[in-house]
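Project channel, design review

CF: Before we commit to the Dromaius novaehollandiae constructs, I'd like one complete example in the thread so the newer folks can see what an input/output pair looks like. Taking EF-hand domain-containing protein.
RD: sounds good, go ahead.
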Amino acid sequence: MMLVDPNNTGVVTFQAFIDFMTRETAETDTAEQVMASFKILAGDKNYITVEELRRELPAEQAEYCISRMVKYVGSDAVPGALDYVSFSNALYGESDL
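CF: and here is what came back for EF-hand domain-containing protein:
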């Protein structure tokens, strides 16, 4: 979190996320890097919520993710939880995303 929240405010701004992603993906994105980025946006949870996506991403990107992410079914799921891990893997595999 210190990389994206150096002032320890407990909030990751979109610009901090973009800066982090730019550093992390300087050469090539991987599913693992995308998952790590979503995990940061999700506050280290194994899922992300619609509200988090809409708060942290530009509207068009958030809606793209929301429309393509499947429901998260882990034991720690909350209503409306989305599975960013399967989404990230699908982006780098054979998928119709």
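RD: helpful, thanks. Strands lie at 48-49, 81-82.
CF: The helical segments are 14-24, 31-41, 50-56, 59-68, 84-91.
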